[in-house]
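Researcher: For the annotation table, I need structure tokens for Enoyl-CoA hydratase/isomerase family protein. Please keep the output clean. Sequence:
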Amino acid sequence: MEAGEVRYEVQGTQALLTIDRPKARNALSPAVVRELMAALERAESDTSVRVVVLTGAGEKVFCAGGDLGTLAGDEGFLSTHEGRRSYGRLLARFQELRKPTVARVNGHALAGGLGLVLACDLAVAVEGADLGTPEIDVGLFPMMMMALLQRHLGRKRALELVLTGDRLPAREALTLGLLNRVVPAAELDAAVGTLAGKLAGKSQAVLALGRRAFFTAEDLPLPAALEYLASQLSLNVLADDAGEGISAFLEKRPPKWNDR
């Protein structure tokens, strides 16, 4: 484990990334964004890591969003604007990663913190956690993370969240598809571990191919999506692990993945 605003720890096949600013409600400072990006790069290059888990320090807040104390910046307008864009690059990097990601939502996930939850492939939250976009209450709008919110919710519910700033209890967020699981705090680690363990047991090569296809097809018109996915299926069939998986199924044995 290493000190910093983001802690990086390898636990078995998991890389655990922890936003470590509990006194600031794990807010997204420029340093946090930089360190999360570096941690993702590190996890991707580590062959022992098969799943990335993202969480916040403490038991109350996953991430409260952008650090308002650093919002104005002190390096000139254009430089500050580029710094803000780095959060958008971070959201995109989660989806470009070749390894699956799980958000361990240990508490409230608000504003840009909700964006991080949505950027992860799967999310498990504790009961009592709130999810929402309260920026409007301080005269701001959830601009960049809204791109992910639009892809998770229908227009009416997404607009209601960003226009009102209302918070959703975890159970309601689950019914809307923003989360995969909601569990008591005492069961959070076990639930995350079970989910991450399932992902770690799959072919990493096929997971990477499939995740990329999923996100690419999401933004294509239906005919183009189907044509693109047909090409990806042809690639998938040629993968070594596809042959191994089919052989294992026919031979009634567990597959031995080579991750290629």
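Researcher: And a one-line annotation?
Model: The first strand starts at residue 6 and ends at 11.
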